[in-house]
Design a protein that fits this description.
It is built from 5 helices and 4 strands, in the order E-H-H-E-H-E-E-H-H. By secondary structure, it is an alpha+beta fold. The chain has a single domain, classed as Winged helix-like DNA-binding domain superfamily/Winged helix DNA-binding domain (Arc Repressor Mutant, subunit A).
Length: 112
């Protein structure tokens, strides 16, 4: 019997239609969060677990970044065993803020 992943209902998943422009801009302002979104944009839905991202921040700070992106309607998460998988809500977010997400996804990665 295959266990179907379940949406992480204990987490707040905001519908992008309920997001104000300032909330979206605040979520997109951080380069770590933009990096998360660019990574997700290049992968199939629900294939990237939170712990697999190569982020220059602590685990607790990374969790905060994922929470901000969820609250801004930019990502959806499901739990599969002990892993939390992510999906970029590209279509939904783009319907709410046409053209904003493509600007972020097309941004060049900063070179350090």
């Amino acid at each position: 019997m295959t266990t179907r992943p379940r949406r992480a209902d204990s987490l707040r998943h905001t519908d992008p239609v309920d997001v104000r422009l300032q909330e979206a801009l605040d979520a997109l302002a951080d380069p770590v969060r933009r990096s998360i979104l660019r990574t997700l944009a290049g992968e199939p839905d629900f294939t990237c677990a939170c712990g697999t991202f190569d982020l220059p921040v602590s685990k607790a700070t990374a969790s905060h970044h994922f929470a901000v992106l969820r609250a801004a309607g930019l990502l959806e998460q499901i739990d599969q065993g002990s892993r939390r998988l992510n999906r970029l809500r590209r279509v939904e977010f783009d319907a709410r803020f046409p053209g904003l997400l493509p600007l972020v996804l097309d941004e060049d990665e900063p070179t350090g």
